Amino acid sequence: MKTVKASEFKAKCLHLMDEVAETGEAIVVTKNGQPISRLEPYARRPETLFGALRSAIEITGDIVAPLDVEWDAAG
């Protein structure tokens, strides 16, 4: 992660914002060698959780067909 001194951040703020937007990488702003804040790309929150994992799950095969496995549901 790239780090930038506060004085350099103040002088190049708009350029650094463009850089973060283009690369997607966060920048840590330091003051006296200590991390103070982090500039990172803005990520919008979904309005609803419905469909939030749409691209993370892949269904293969028939998910509603019987498994042909005997089991005791009564206990």
Helix content: 10-25%
Distance between the termini: 55 Å
CATH-scheme architecture of the domain at 2-39: 3-Layer(aba) Sandwich
Fold-level CATH name of the domain at 2-39: YefM-like fold
Number of helices: 2
Strand proportion, as a percent range, falls in 15-25%
Strand order of the largest sheet: 1-2-3
- Low-confidence stretches are none
The biggest beta sheet reads: 3 strands, mixed
Please state the average pLDDT score: 88
The CATH class designation of the domain at 2-39 is Alpha Beta
- Quaternary state of this entry equals single chain
Describe this structure in words.
- By secondary structure, this protein is α+β, with helices and mostly antiparallel strands.
- It has a domain at 2-39: YefM-like fold (3-Layer(aba) Sandwich), CATH 3.40.1620.
- The protein has 2 helices and 3 strands, in the order βααββ.
- The protein has helices at 6-11, 13-23, and strands at 2-5, 27-31, 34-39.
- A 3-stranded mixed β-sheet has the order 1-2-3.
- The model has no long low-confidence stretch (mean pLDDT 88).
